[in-house]
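Amino acid/polyamine/organocation transporter (APC superfamily): structure tokens wanted.
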Amino acid sequence: MTVVLKRAVTTPLLYFFILGDILGAGVYVLVGSVARESGGAVWLPLVIALVLATLTAGSYAELATKFPRAGGSAHYVTRAFGPAAGSFVGFCMLAAGVVSVGALARAFAGDYLQALVSVPVVVVVVVFLALLAALNIRGIRESLGANVAATLVEVGGLLLIIGLGLWVMLRGDADLSRLTQVGTAEQGAVGAVLAGSVLAFYSFVGFETSVNLAEEVKDPRRSYPTALFGALLTAGVVYALIGVVASAAVPTEKLAESSGPLLEVVRVAGEVPDWLFSVIALVAVANGALLTGIMSSRLAYGMARDGLLPSTLARILPGRRTPWVAILATSSVSLLLALTGEVDSLAATLVLLLLFVFGSVDAAVLVLRREPGEPGHFRIPTVVPLLGLASCLFLFTRIDGEVWARGLILVGLGAVLAVVNAVRARGGVDAKKRVEPAEDRRGGSS
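Answer:
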């Protein structure tokens, strides 16, 4: 008898799950980086990133309703292109999670914390990641319990910034002309906006993890597309408003120099103590790192259990029943990345890794059109995944050489892992073929 997961997730629950995944720490720390790349029109790269993310979200919507099973990107790519490709995509997802935690650890040590206390970055990063790993090892229930409260705090913080920014505009202290300033001294308008869009894309990641809930959604054919596109649109509106008020209220140069850019809006408004918003921002950053760390460690554990990574990573801590080796391993790599990279370069590295994942999913949805799947599933027009794939290929060309140098190391490891797993799988099949005829001969002679 096949055991299936209980279908208990309604459309509103799925909507808030996806929205909570998207509305994370990225916008708290990257608005300044986007301003540095694009100029005063910070809202524009955020809107472009929304459009690009929505293209690939269409592919996820079709596949999640066509094959409503847990497994996500790696499952779809495996189904379309085989286990080697699925292994590669799974590793890229894992590497993206580890890089993201490193970026958020670095962000935690930035201006938001420095507004409260002056501590060396190295000390903050080490202590921060150690505490997150300890909470992760303690247990999933404790970790997700902390997430509920933290999500409410981080969403409230974004709404507070929008309100303060609008107040600055209403009292006449904002410069609305900055909203149309595109380009920098280094790049023209088009190049600057696209460079900013690469970083802004980081703010929309998270929706791809929701496909793992498709098996538990009551009516995935109707619920999943509604919740997914609704959450993306909501996040896009919030982010665009953040971009507008931040750019109008704060001079572009000051915004670009800050690693706590939304704190600059609070300071201009003058209605909320710096320390209060700094605490809110730090909660948002810590929550994003915690959730991503949970995902990364569980993905590493699952891949190790399936024989795709060293079996040591599948060890479980007695009593707590948590994958302690996977947690320590992923946290250690995040620590190394946090100590050797800046927030914007790490964010761009994450986008690079996810472009491999998203491009593979966009291609997979076209290949899997030949398979029937669930009757009446959501179907996106063919042009959408084609545009999604094209956008991924185009964004590859907008990523700096320094980011490629870091990212290709991780991509190369994923490719080597895929080849090794493919050879092992082929060896297992060949061995089975050799054994079966011998067994047939023994059966025939008895």
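Confidence is low (pLDDT under 50) at residues 1-5. The two ends are 34 Å apart (CA to CA).

Cheers.
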